[in-house]
Hints:
Layout: E1 2-7, H1 14-22, E2 26-32, H2 36-46, E3 50-52, H3 55-60, E4 66-69, H4 76-85, E5 89-93, H5 100-113, E6 117-120, H6 127-137, E7 144-152, H7 165-168, H8 172-187, E8 193-201, E9 231-238, E10 243-249, E11 258-265, E12 269-273, E13 277-282, E14 285-289, H9 300-317, H10 325-344, E15 348-349
Parallel strand pairs: 1-2, 1-4, 2-3, 4-5, 5-6, 7-10
Antiparallel strand pairs: 7-11, 8-9, 8-15, 9-10, 11-12, 12-13, 13-14
Helix pairs in contact: 1-9, 4-5, 5-10, 8-10
This protein binds nicotinamide-adenine-dinucleotide.
Nicotinamide-adenine-dinucleotide binds next to loops.
Amino acid sequence: MLKVGVIGVGSISHNHIKPYLQNDNVELVALCDLNEQRLQEKGEKYGVTTLYTKHEELLENKDIDAVSICTWNNSHADIAIAALEADKHVLVEKPLSMTVEEALAVEEAAKRTGKTLQVGFVRRHGSNTKILKQFIDQDDLGELYYAKASILRRLGNPGGWFSDISKSGGGPLIDLGVHVIDICWYLMGRPRPVSVSGNTYSKLGNRSHIENLSFYKAADYDPSLNDVEDLANGLIRFENGASLYVDVSFTLQAKQDELSVKLFGDKGGAEIEPELAIVTEKNNTILNVAPQIDNLGFDFTQAFTNEINHFVECCLDNKATIAPVEDGVQVMKMLNAVYESAKTGKEIQL
Ligand SMILES: NC(=O)c1ccc[n+]([C@@H]2O[C@H](COP(=O)([O-])OP(=O)(O)OC[C@H]3O[C@@H](n4cnc5c(N)ncnc54)[C@H](O)[C@@H]3O)[C@@H](O)[C@H]2O)c1
């Protein structure tokens, strides 16, 4: 039985808490949040009576074996390190941290303590990702030498902590780009990034004046502070010669939203967003292959359940996680290098 505490009980925490409650090998023993009212509400909702407003107090509870960290990005690294040092396994939401230095400190603590640290790269746990990975592992796509990913929101700066750089570490790149950079890099076989060129733009602000079009807002929506970029793009080159191009926005003068993730190999290609599709060649003819599966798209709820169950299994059976801390570090290096390149106007060597 794994005894779990959840730190940060805002929007995404439901996708951790529900699978924990449904897992027969887990007992959800405690919740923690700075916001006392939210904490009380969530305690009642999920039937959890051990509630803390300070993560330090939760970590002192010797009954707890593992924690999920679902707080703002600025506290991920500190809480992860404190939890590891308090002998807990850790599942930390993406991004692992706000800076590379913090990410390296978490990695050092994970190595030193020998506890499991899993990064919340939830897209790795999607059923369509797992299916595509089988094709890639069987060499059906050959060598993957290019990937291209976009998450372009016309209007979708969530406000609140997301648009306060001191709490988020950045805008759409660190919030949305982290997912698609990770999934491309993971499916490409995690080649070592060697150089990064990027641009960020803050041209449109958060456009909170727009009427007649609704958009995603943070739990504590507040448009008054916005010091994050509204568009970022980046070109990442890997040691094996492969490259990845990504562009992401919170707001853009675009006709429609765009979500796409494409991978190109020398034997075949694939799209994983918006839907799984495979491109191949047979008898001198190019084929678009549409798998007959229950869910061609990214199944958010199922992927979180898979992610939580995988974490629980790794903790209980001392297995290696498919989203280890060193991958969190590499992704932070790529994200950070895009920001660094944008700031200096130069390509960054890693
Ligand atoms: N994997 C995904 O697809 C996904 C989706 C959304 C959010 N996230 C990540 O989850 C995290 C939380 O996002 P959210 O949308 O739930 O935000 P949110 O604002 O809805 O919730 C965050 C909660 O954490 C609490 N909190 C902040 N700092 C704290 C601290 N030091 N100690 C205790 N509580 C603290 C806040 O009071 C709030 O209730 C972020 O890191 C975000 O990047 C991941």
